[in-house]
Amino acid sequence: MIESYENAFQVIVLLVCVIIALLCIIIYHSRTWIMLFYFYGAWLMGDAYWLMCLIFYGQVPQITFISDISWLSSYIFLYLLLAQTAPLEENRRRYCLPWIGPVFTICMAFFFMK
């Protein structure tokens, strides 16, 4: 029961963050705010799916790939935001860092398939 309250609170906070980012897009016309809007939006969709499963089915979903995909896509938008706002010399040093996520995901996929 407490998990549904926590998820509802997360959805409300993320909805407020999406609205604030959308207002900042309209005011500032900046690509940075667009990436932040997409990050919050993708995270919101994952949490909303999780919350709807708790409300309608009364339990945590058995297969969570829908929410996992939206959460992983939100990390991609966050990485693009960080890459866009970082200085040019920092971007060259962090070239291998984004490959850690897909490698970890593939390893975990093989682990859970066994």
What is the residue-mean pLDDT, rounded to a whole number?
82
First and last CA, distance: 32 Å
Helix content: over 70%
- What is the C-alpha radius of gyration, as a whole number of Å? 17 Å
Biggest sheet statistics? none
Give the helix/strand class: mainly alpha
The secondary-structure element order is HHHHH
Q: Can you count the helices?
A: 5
* Number of E-state strands: 0
- Unreliable stretches covering 5 or more consecutive residues: none
Q: Rough shape?
A: flat
Beta-strand content estimate: under 5%
Structure in words:
- The protein has 114 residues and is mainly alpha-helical.
- The protein is built from 5 helices and no strands.
- It has helices at residues 2-28, 31-57, 65-85, 88-93, 100-113.
- It is flat, with a radius of gyration of 17 Å.
- The model has no long low-confidence stretch (mean pLDDT 82).
